User: Fold AAEL015644-PA from Aedes aegypti.
Amino acid sequence: MFEVPGTKDLPVDNVGCVSNSSFSWVRKFLITPKQQQTYQSLPTNAANTASNDAFLLPVRPFSDSCEENCRRLLGIYKYEENLNGRKKVSMFKVVWRFTRTRLLIASLFQCLAVLLAFMGLLVFSNLTIESMQTVVTRSCANCSAISNCSNVPAMILGIQFSMNRYVCNSTAKVDASDGRGDRLSLSMGVFLCFFMAFMFNSVKNWLNLRTAIRLRTAILSSVYKRAMKSSVINQVSAHQIITMANEESESVFQIVQSGVQMIGIVFGIILSFVSGLILLSLSGILPLVSSLPLLLLLLVTGTISKTYYRKFLSYGALKLSTLEDICVNFKNVKTLQLETILSKRFIDYLNRQYQALQWSNIYSTKFSGGVTSAILVGGLYLIWCDVNIKTESTEVLTLLLIYAYLVQRITLDFCLCIHHILQGRASLEKLKQSYQLSTPDSVRLKPNRENLAIQMNSLEAEWPSMDGAKSNGFRLSLDSFEIVQGQFIGVTGNSGAGKTTLLHTILRNTEVKKGKVLQRGKIAFFPSKLVLMNSSLKENVLFGESMDAKR
Assistant:
């Protein structure tokens, strides 16, 4: 029977950590109860021998994504550094080369979503209005008062729009059901276009999220690798560099999202100009063009106020969260005879918060969206239910509202993208400094015995001083320190005995004054503060695996 050879080594990446895919791979081969029974049935003298093969893990058949992403990003950075020089390396170019394939695919979905939105506006909505105008024209074809009818389009009357302002005095009845089936079909086309645009936007967001996860994984792992290999002799230490990379890499998703949206925004601006020119040819659109800036101002103001409204709520909630602390300390306040003053000030503060929330609610999208919805519903009622309405402007009101909404979305997305791109540029420049750390100890010697993982003999090390200042006097001295491969070592001692200094000496974060740190293989460093995914606790525990209730 063919047996796959096993290994007892934990699958640690070259970057020095167990990433998500490695962890998921290990979880597939957890020790089962049957393996535990097999191990317990072994002879006592065989417990520490090679016969405990029940704990062997199959050799990993694939390369880890964390390791591959780290290698790719560092390779791209080194290529840009050799091409443009150390000082002229652009992190935007590095990020673009790393993510360009996925970004181009996501941009394609973004452009398709914008195209479908404008297609629903121009094609189906225009055909709906033409169908409505056809019904009115057909009903007025045999009308004796056609010269005084304001329902007939200007091209039929042969005069310019708004030159005839008389009210139609015809008593002919109009069949409101005429052409209603066609208009319903065309409205379904509008709905389908916007629904597909929403679906393409969802796919785009999913691709951007996957791209951002890959990019952030590559940034964290590559910075970790450079920090662990560097000899830190300046103002910061390795864990500070990793903490900075963890904080600055949080803007990665906004960088990816904004880069894709900018392509869709440029495409949307072109379509908005084309759509505006097409809409100007419709009868009845000219009087409503003057109201377009007003509609845009209403929508933009509502969206901006919504953002500040949410920020105001969060700020107010943060302030009001101190109520519990105030109540706890209120007993101490009473002893100082200040409870009346404090209570009055607190009530006044709550009243100011409540009044501010009321005014903010007026300018929120709940109000502006209600006004827009009322206009839209009223226009639809006039178009669909009252075909005898005596104005041409209401027939294009819906088109103008949809057009204003699309232009408003493009304008706001453009402003947000500029903000996120500038913020991301500053974060990438900070991360760039992590890739330029010096590594003077690039050639590492190995221990003299094959079974040794770490060896230090006659070693003296101390923490680096800033700007060449004098040492603080503390120095770690070791006569002999060896770690055998597969051996568990526990370092104990009093506070200040040098346990942390020993760890950072192995990681080469200290200055070695005498001796050498010899290392064979890889070192995995697990700090007390872990880097978690920006997700729920359940997702961090599962690491992409399906939920198993038994485990």
Observations:
- The chain has a mean pLDDT of 66.
